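Q: How would the structure tokens look for this protein?
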Amino acid sequence: MKFVELDLNSNSSPCNKKKEDLEKRNEELSMKYNENNNLLKTVVTQFSEFLGVMRNGNASVQLIDAAQSTLAMATQQVDASDNDASRGDGSRSETTNVVSKS
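A: Here is the predicted structure in token form.
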């Protein structure tokens, strides 16, 4: 009788390699999520303040220019994140823009 010893814990197995790849991708996506979440919080906070000033009629040209610049920078960062995501594993979730009418 002949016995074959299998090393199921080998780091060279395809399953372990795939697991390591997925863990790395998960970490990258978590970092991107946190970055985008912080960006969203910043934009929402700034525009909440901006709308308050606009509502009171105290908005200067400089404030409007600053708000426009903030949006432009946020858009560039989101576009860069989208480009990074499309270079990943090829799977991207599509989002839908929703406009609230009040």
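Residues 6 and 43 are 55 Å apart (CA to CA).

The helical segments are 14-55, 61-86.

Upvote if useful.
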